[in-house]
């Protein structure tokens, strides 16, 4: 029997009941991804509520202005009475934050499903994400870490815009947390780069 026939024989060999049950257990993750899709819908709704209120406040709607100011006001700081550039900037940063978290959800839903549950066979689809063609657990971790850094940057920027409303300890703590995220992402990327040649060598040896 030549190597090709051996590979065909292995491919057609039925899976034993216990390994098959363990392998099929991956579908238990499906409700988790459906739940994340519902969470994505909540974020979309929240985004449009905030955007409509921002437009309403800019057009002089008192109720929308009160909601916007309440959303960005900091406890203990003087409450603004009108729409200012800082308030607009904080609201827009909040919208960007929602978009970045939504992007993170998409990466987890699509990448996680493709990696851990089942292939989606999107190779010929014109809208296939570029990163999905080479996604694996390591790539997904690096991309998630990068997305978390972006989200942390938005929160840190929002804090610095209102720096006078926070004490030095809070500012230092948030900066330290952001640096910790950066170092974690760099460590994950470095580990992935170190492990990549070993995995490639293992594949080539087989």
Structure report:
With 206 residues, this protein is mostly helical. The chain has one domain. 75% of the residues lie in helices and 0% in strands. It has seven helices and no strands. α3 (30-58) runs antiparallel to α5 (85-117) and α6 runs antiparallel to α7. It is elongated, with a radius of gyration of 24 Å. The two termini are 18 Å apart. The mean pLDDT is 80.
**Count of DSSP helices?**
7
Coarse shape: elongated
The count of β-strands is 0
What is the H-and-E element order?
Answer: HHHHHHH
Strand content: under 5%
- Between the first and last Cα atoms, what is the distance in angstroms? 18 Å
Q: Largest sheet, if any?
A: none
The number of distinct structural domains comes to 1
The secondary structure category is mainly alpha
Work out the helicity level: over 70%
Low-confidence region ranges: none
Mean pLDDT: 80
Radius of gyration: 24 Å
Q: Tell me the quaternary state.
A: single chain
Quickly describe the structure.
This protein is mostly helical. The protein has one domain. It is built from seven helices and no strands.
Key descriptive features of the protein:
single chain; 206 residues; mainly alpha; elongated
Helices and strands in order:
Elements: H1 3-12, H2 17-24, H3 30-58, H4 62-72, H5 85-117, H6 137-161, H7 168-205
Helix pairs in contact: 3-4, 3-5, 5-6, 6-7
């Amino acid at each position: 029997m030549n190597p090709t026939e051996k590979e065909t024989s292995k491919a057609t060999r039925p899976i034993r009941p216990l390994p098959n049950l363990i392998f099929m257990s991956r579908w238990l993750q499906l409700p988790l991804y459906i739940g994340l899709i519902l969470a994505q819908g909540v974020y979309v709704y929240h985004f449009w509520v905030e955007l409509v209120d921002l437009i309403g406040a800019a057009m002089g709607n008192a109720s929308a202005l009160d909601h916007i100011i309440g959303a960005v006001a900091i406890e203990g700081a003087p409450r603004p009475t009108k729409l200012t550039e800082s308030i607009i900037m904080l609201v827009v940063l909040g919208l960007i934050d929602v978009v970045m978290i939504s992007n993170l959800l998409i990466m987890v839903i699509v990448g996680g499903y493709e990696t851990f549950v089942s292939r989606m066979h999107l190779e010929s689809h014109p809208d296939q994400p570029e990163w999905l063609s080479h996604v694996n657990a390591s790539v997904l971790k690096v991309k998630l870490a990068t997305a978390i850094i972006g989200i942390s940057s938005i929160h840190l920027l929002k804090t610095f815009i209102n720096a006078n409303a926070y004490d030095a300890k809070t500012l230092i703590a948030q900066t330290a947390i952001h640096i910790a995220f950066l170092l974690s992402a760099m460590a994950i990327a470095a580990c992935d780069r170190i492990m990549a040649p070993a995995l490639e060598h293992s594949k080539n040896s087989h």
